[in-house]
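thread from #wetlab-drylab

HS: before we spend reagent money on co-crystallization trials with succinic acid, can we at least see a predicted complex? here's what I'd submit
DV: go for it
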Amino acid sequence: MNLSTTIAGVTFPGCFMNAAGALCVTREELEALGRSVAGAIVTKSMTIEARTGNPEPRYYGFPEGSINSMGLPNLGYRAYAELIPQLKRFGKPVIASVAGLSEEDFPTIAETINAAQPDLIEVNLSCPNIPGKPQIGYDADTSERVLKRVRPKITVPMGVKLPPYFDPAHHQVMGTMLGRCGIDFLNLINSVGNGLVVDPERETVVIKPKGGFGGLGGRLIKPVALANVRAFYKFFGGKMPIIGTGGVMSGSDAFEHILCGASAIQVGTVLVEEGLEVFPRLEAELGAVLARQGYRSIQDCRGRLKEL
Ligand code: SIN
């Protein structure tokens, strides 16, 4: 089965890739993604300065999913600007994920990273794990200001990674705002922020930062991710490319994202839990589902979810 796909004019040899954050901080991890069958290399969301991130333990997996509060550990944008041209030798798209601790950081990082010519740039407005820094994506005015400052600095396709929204009014407000900002693609969704997982035996939280609050991922967030993919797919009339992220543990989960409107799929929790071997498994499973359902490509079934 041909699982190649296209986002904003960029062709990906396969539709599965890592989510920013999963096994993509160091040169070694990024090169391993390059050698794997992942359809792209996505960098960790980068900040101005290198960061070690939040104190450990900061990731916890459990049967229904995961909770993390990594705190953007990364090498700093200058290091990724040097690495990106080298990563292109793997012959698959490189997506640079840009974050920031202040509004000013975003255009600064974007300008230098754009000069390194990744294939696409994703602006992460949705990290829930920096103490004292609210998720920008929950403030439409700040999001618009940031995106309008970043947009002129970027010549490659520019996307936005958003947090989950839980009310159609918020999809409407954000969709309208994004329509004014010249966005080329969306990545939906980041982790479901500020969840709390409790160990009843030890009577404790399970991660250290922020009193145990962190971003939820894995299978328990799939319905929230699907709802956001579907809502924005419909808002933009199917014309906005969407990377579906959230709750994909199997090829069947990926198929659900594609039916809702995703053109490509990112994986976080399952990649952390299984390692790079997850990519051939997911490809084989999705290929089998597509064949069983009578589709010949991702484009064939994208967005074709039936309503009752
Ligand atoms: C983290 O590093 O805390 C996670 C990044 C993110 O959620 O964007």
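DV: The first helix runs from residue 27 to 35.
HS: ok that's useful, forwarding to the group
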